[in-house]
Amino acid sequence: MKPVLKLENISSFIGPFHILQGVSLEVRPGEAVVVLGRNGAGKTTTLRSIMGLVKPAAGVLELEDQSLFGLPSHKIARLGLGYVPEDYGIFNLLSVEENLRLAAWRQDNATKERQEYILQLFPDLKAAYRRLASTLSGGQRQMLSIGRALLNENKVILIDEPSKGLAPIVVEKVCKALLEVKKNTNIILVEQNFNLACAVGDRFYILNDGRTVLDGGIASLAKDRELQKRYLGVVA
Amino acid sequence: MKTPAVIKLVTAGAKDRKQFVAGSAVALIAAAFLLMLPGFAGHATISLFSRIFILAVFGMSYDILRGFTGVINLGHAVFFGSGTYLAGILFLRLDPTPGTLLLAVIVTVVYCSAAAFIMGKIAFRGGGVIACAMITLALGEIVRHLAETWRDVTMGADGLTFPIPYMFRDRLLFYYYALLFLILMVIVLRRFVLSPTGRVLLAIRENEQRAIFLGYNTTTYKMISLQVGGISAGLSGVMFALLTRFANTELLTIQQTLNALLVTIVGGTGTLYGAIVGTAFVQLIQHYLLTLRDVHPVFTRWLLFFGSIYILVVLYMPAGIVGAYRQLADLLSSRNKKKIA
User: Fold this and answer.
1) Whole-model pTM?
2) What is the rounded distance in angstroms from the CA atom of residue B28 to the CA atom of residue A131?
3) Per-residue pLDDT tens for A210-226?
4) Which DSSP letter does residue A232 get?
5) Which chain B residues touch A73 with a CB distance below 8 Å?
6) Topology, domain A5-232
7) A88-139, pLDDT tens digit by residue?
8) Residue B284 lies in a domain
9) For residue B206, which residues of chain A lie inside 8 Å, CB to CB?
């Protein structure tokens, strides 16, 4: 099956530091891919390289056969990549409504329907619709951030550590939402919470020192304690 | 949590009905006062207020850049001074008629638009806020130097005195023209900052990278902001020409830009109305301190008092006068809500 998004031997620098030294992964249609690895493995930089926020120095980066290499970030986003960064990336000075409106590229019926869907998916956002984003809780911010990425017809949504800093009950809500999102959109999920990763993901890629070292079906990883311990530090 | 002043203007949903009524009442009282002012004020006061109206538009034009987009343009006086010069040169070379004024407005709009385009293309190349400030400062100085050396047209540092159309010579009538100009510009600029483009500018001000990964070409939006700010400043320059009937290179210096920056800081950045309040505050204090010079010799050092007032405002009202007023209104409103609860 032809991948929607393909990364092949991506190499990226941040300043003088060679962070990604050969990351390869692909997202196939209808798939949620989980990117795992210890702190500093290059997971966030991988997402930022896909979005063009860190310019890749070498490799292949394609979205449905179109090269993203060298394109400015705003063009990459418009080609159909939604990004949910670790720090949520919402605008505190704007209301929930305005954050959503700002994210929508069109104001047509399809967008309105998607907005309705988002508000159904995240009832908390509906309740806080007119409130400033700065007054939202961590969980609500995460919902707004994910909701914003769903507002356009994105081909792939890149989500960076959605469970970070959230209470377990909120993580559960986020997990349910991601399972719902997965039905309509391809996802690349960077996640430290192994249980959440297993619940949402279909396949995994493990990064180590800026390289893809392993990939496969998430079910096989969930069973393999030794592998989890070696690459992810997961202790049973 | 304190609500940033800018939100009150932009977030329709956050509007409190009581605050809206209070704001409308203040605006009505101010409008009634300004309409009746010429009935009881002298010529000097009328001219002072005409000056306030025009410089307030210059302040608002700077607020579009600094307060709403987060761009520091240290060459903003180029637009203002050029508007004054272009009007003056045309009045001098052609007949000082309303037709020439219309031509001056058109030429100023075209010139400021082109100048903003060139300035933006150079300044927004991705070097960050400081690089942008330094580049615009240098560009401003280049224009000032050109104006100073092109004596045949600008009369250099001596300045240019010129006639103006007959209908603008009456100070009382001009007061109303300047007031009308201010009202029109408030309507236009308010619509602009409340538009979807205005919201993108706010997003850029808060975090440019976030706006980029949402799919916005932030350079284009900053260019739009510079165009709107530049053209507004140019138009205020044309009105300034009608007020002073004189142009010199002082109008193109960084001091002129800093004046705009200071009035927006004093009034409240990112509020639009703050520039009006700030300009009125600064001009009235300046005028008052100047008159006190005759009362006591200490007031010959009026700049010292002026500087102290600036420092006090910046230290104790970091959100500016309009921002402080809104914070106070928020505080009272939340206390009332608590009492009711």
Assistant:
1) 0.87
2) 29
3) 999 888 888 888 887 87
4) I
5) 209, 212-213
6) Rossmann fold (3.40.50)
7) 889 998 899 999 999 888 888 888 888 898 898 888 888 888 888 988 988 8
8) no
9) 91-94
